[in-house]
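pipeline stage [seq->struct] | target=Haloacid dehalogenase | organism=Trichoderma asperellum | residues=255
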Amino acid sequence: MTTTRAINTFKALTFDCYGTLVDWESGIYNNLRPLYQQLDDSHPLKNDRLGLLRAIVRHEGLVQTANPTYLYHTVLAEAYGNLAAELGVAADQEAKAEFGYSVGSWPIYPDTLDALTRLHKHFKLVIISNVDLDSFKRTLEKQFLGFPFDAIYTAQEIGSYKPDLRNFQYLIGHCDKDLGVKKEDILHTAQSLHHDHVPAKQIGIASAWIERGEEVESVMGGDPKEYEERVAYSWKFKNMKEMADAVDAAAAKSA
């Protein structure tokens, strides 16, 4: 849903976490090393970071769609095993489990914590993530250093994965119930066009696109040309620092 209101007039920012605040792609790719190291040098995916990421995203989506109540670490483990089978390389149960529980080691982007601290002066900050509670707790402790988000909602408690509209219905209902924030005062902030901006438009909440992919080309965000008719974000920022700068500027202008 597009809007012309000032960005600082919303009451809550709801974040996709992994991809927007956490460097999902680096975390995933680094933990795929045991698979791609087994590939012959002549294999087309041996040194193809984007190709491997697209492959694991595809397998992750298939597992989530077929098993919407699986915990995220199980989804990752299954996707890892299925990718290994597709590549014709070995992945035992221990390797699959290790990949599934790697979430807490995925790094946040360098601008994330400072941007969140600045944005928290203006908004309630809410996580709506496709991970399970234990995985997010490890990220919160190790990467966010205990940052005080106002609410955290995960696929585990919702029982489905984004882009399922049930996740956004849950988000809207609980922002109202838990924080007193109405639907029209939510600004959904995310990188993934597929997982976040398509359903945001469908359900009628405003959104801001955090593009990422500044240093290394990104897979998670998506091609805006491909999604042109299906998304309606009102702001586009390269990173979270840009967004925090824009909010501070809007707040100063309206003061």
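stage status: PASS
auto-comment: The chain is about 45% helix and 10% strand. The chain has two domains: 7-23+107-254, 25-104.
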